[in-house]
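Write out the bound-state structure for NDP.
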Amino acid sequence: MDAKKVLENLKQRFPNEPEYHQAVEEVLGTIEEEYNKHPEFDKVNLIERLCIPDRIYQFRVTWLDDKGNIQTNMGYRIQHNNAIGPYKGGIRFHKSVNLGILKFLAFEQTFKNSLTTLAMGGAKGGSDFSPRGKSSAEVMRFCQAFMLELYRHIGPDCDVPAGDIGVGGREVGYMFGAYKKYTREFQGVLTGKALEFGGSLIRPEATGYGTVYFLRAMLKTKGMEIAGKKVLISGAGNVAQYAAEKVLQLGGKVMTMSDSDGYIYDPDGIDREKLDYIFDLKQVQRGRIKEYVDQYPSAKYVEGQKPWFEKADIALPCATQNELNEEQAKALVANGVIAVAEGANMPTTPAAIKVLQDAKVLYSPGKASNAGGVSVSGLEMAQNSQRLSWTSEEVDAKLLWIMENIHDNCVKYGTEPDGYVNYVKGANVAGFMKVAKAMMAQGVF
Ligand code: NDP
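---
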């Protein structure tokens, strides 16, 4: 394979999808050497078959708002690759959603799911509908309309969606209810469900906890720990909240959280009581992060900015893609950052990754460090198949094992001659090899 040629070809065939191109470029750049050790891969054009999704569903979603107006949105499901298990990946509801963003997410998901050791292929879906500012009744009607189209394409052994940005327990519940009604079957077809109808303990916590378990494993390679470290977190949603919780449990100090309007910085740290306030603010009140400073006036709110210029030891980007750029990475390095672990998907731009890696900062890509969410989704599928529920201790222990195993694989495939671990390369090569071998064994489709 000539990675540059493959990428140019994809750009020509699928223009105007920059995030997809970015994700493919990052992976190809790191697997090219390993791929070329296997001439049998190129003989069957494995790389193009792995980069281009198996199929894409695209549909109109029509729903009624509270004022009686008919609204339309776009709905998508990308089934990227099912070589190692049923398609699996979240659903995102956000106004920025488009085909290119979902293609990048589905592509990444394929490697991430491979890394977990569980039998899951890669997929992603979503809509340009944003639940922000909508009533619960509107969200419910939208979810029902969305599922009216999607239910034909998913199933517990075919494609199992989950949550992502804008899709939490409420939205999963509404979509599950709709699926059950349309199909007249009670099946483990979505993960992230509530405990009462097949959800798994620790699923809400899994992505954030897993990110911090991965961070801990990275720090351990340098003989360091989280206790006493100052941590910058972006986002204030599911991933950010539980990453903050685990940092606190391990003795770290959380300095910031954010949303798409700005960030808060608390010089005294966001302690347990303050984090409980944020949980309530985001999960129950559905408020904005700037309200934090009304409650805790010693903190500051910075409108329209990201938290990366603040001084800290660790950064955990947990909001969205491309939210940490080159200039911000330089500021982190200048301020002595030790580690950057991604809770979000592709939050660090390629130029920023280079800055961090050149400075030998411990840096982990989301497909490795945020794989805890989909891992516990996989465990939820296992529990649904058994019609059993495991204890939170059991699930948490499995999550920890999976995250440490992913870390070990990254070290195995990503350690460079000078001893620095290139976690991007490690994750990409480890994830790729398993999918590639499965595709080779199954023939050409
Ligand atoms: P949530 O919707 O719960 O929270 C998202 C957070 O990010 C919110 O605080 C939101 O602010 C902020 N945000 C969203 N878009 C932007 C933007 N364009 N600029 C700045 N801030 C933004 O989502 P999750 O916490 O579930 O997901 C966060 C990230 O983690 C995503 O990249 C997702 O793909 C990834 N991820 C999630 C997993 C999961 O299990 N949930 C699993 C693996 C990865 P606002 O309220 O203003 O929109």
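---
The domain at 206-369 is CATH 3.40.50.720 (Rossmann fold).
Residues 392-414 form the longest helix (23 residues).
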